[in-house]
Amino acid sequence: MGLLVVGSLGLDTVATPFDKIENALGGSATYISLAASYFSGPIRLVGIVGSDFPKEYIDMLNTHNIDLEGLQIVEGGKTFRWSGKYHYDLNVRDTLYTELNVFEKFDPVIPDSARKSKFVCLGNIDPVLQSKVLDQMENPQFVVCDTMNYWIEGKKKELLELLPRVNVLIINDSEARLLAHEPNLIKAAKLIRAMGPEILIIKKGEHGALLFTEETIFSAPAFPMESIYDPTGAGDSFAGGFIGYLFKTRDLSSESLKRAVIYGSTMASFCVEKFSTKGLEELSYLQIQDRFRQFMNLSRFDEE
Amino acid sequence: MGLLVVGSLGLDTVATPFDKIENALGGSATYISLAASYFSGPIRLVGIVGSDFPKEYIDMLNTHNIDLEGLQIVEGGKTFRWSGKYHYDLNVRDTLYTELNVFEKFDPVIPDSARKSKFVCLGNIDPVLQSKVLDQMENPQFVVCDTMNYWIEGKKKELLELLPRVNVLIINDSEARLLAHEPNLIKAAKLIRAMGPEILIIKKGEHGALLFTEETIFSAPAFPMESIYDPTGAGDSFAGGFIGYLFKTRDLSSESLKRAVIYGSTMASFCVEKFSTKGLEELSYLQIQDRFRQFMNLSRFDEE
């Protein structure tokens, strides 16, 4: 039945202190699907593009066992476009423009073949649309959801209606503080888990990630990177690696969730090594395993 | 010969959103010595106070096997005083006042009994004084040094002269970026290690700490704390736990350094649970071991 991924596909124009690209492949569904594709397939992508969406991108996604039956291609429409500029300190970025284009009227329709999917990843889109996706599913068992400050501020009510329906919420530290109205992340995590999701992951960029479940808190390190080429898509790649690993193993134990967080961090670290989706296009599972072990060495210590 | 600790002793007036204390025991040498005292003794403290320094504090330090032969008590002088206010987000603090008092003329004199100490911890004081301490030592083998943005900005030259003489520099992330003129912490660490210290520890507060040596990078988690009562002294407690463990074991291998970072984090976590030095006054080694293991559970994951 596959892993269902719903989110945006876009054409990104990105400038960093190192280089610049125009109209490169981007979007949350794109990064999530590519990252997840290394673990198991098929990935069933639901999203929307215009007829200007390059065929080479379609082909590339197809080669990664990403099923595009649910991709709406609007004849004569223009694909979603985003442009951002990163500063010398790559933690800071400015959005230069956002053109919603066909994405403005996106109404996700889940193909029959994907409605029975047990694993669902809701990329960062309007919580109203995320709920609409779940309405169409027959009996999803593990729903991972991303969101952002824009929705927390602008569609709080709709987001709070969605949260009890998701198993895992993945947000960053500033979003967690905003959603919980609480600066202490440990307290914020308790408050957010009480809103619905039994599992919460707080991404902290260069400081790693925290996993909160009923019985455990797990602190994952960040991969020490001297040169981050393009941070775009890191969070989506994390979500893709996380759900991809769980979809492959079907093991939802705490120990497996911890490994999934590390696989998420692994995919995010590959993502930022190249512009656009390039860092996720030609990996081998051996490379992924190798980096997983590097994460292990990074944080491991023993009693004397 | 003991572990030599040089730094400030002071009377702190601290306000947090939870409570307020006046003229409570503080100072870098105080926190370092107390934290280190749980691992091995004797601790030889060198510092300066006025005759207003309460005898109960002297007694308390003595009960922790802290040798005060090197403590200068200036008759008629006033002890160093600092006052700070923490905000609701405890990462932010304002200094309300700093009265140097007797500390302004501090000229550390190392007692003969301590000049042969092999382990030295230089608390955060003027790098000129830190160098003066080392000038008096016979053959120190392991020198740990703390500093802060004030010295990095105001006494850069003197600090750079000191750094080749220290084995471990412990600073926080913003200080590392400032010292190296580099926002990427991994690159900054390389640059700082090239300034002299073969071992660098970057403290990241609620995000844990990073250890950099020639052969390894180690990422230590932060202890998940719902209520931080008073963050004052956390960094000094970290330094004390770090050098205390190494002084006890005399094992300077990478694996031991990693454990020392966790013991440092452990002592910092106890420190912030109570106001002033209260969190470090009545611990047992069993409690410390127990929290060390909690740190282990927090970051440990296994391959499937």
From TrEMBL, chains A, B:
PROSITE patterns: PFKB_KINASES_2. It comes from the Bacteria. SUPFAM superfamilies: Ribokinase-like (SSF53613). GO terms for molecular function: kinase activity. GO terms for cellular component: cytosol. The keyword Kinase applies. Residues 19-278 form the Carbohydrate kinase PfkB domain. The keyword Transport does not apply. Keywords: Kinase, Transferase. It holds the Pfam family PfkB. This is Ribokinase family sugar kinase. It comes from Ignavibacterium album (strain DSM 19864 / JCM 16511 / NBRC 101810 / Mat9-16).
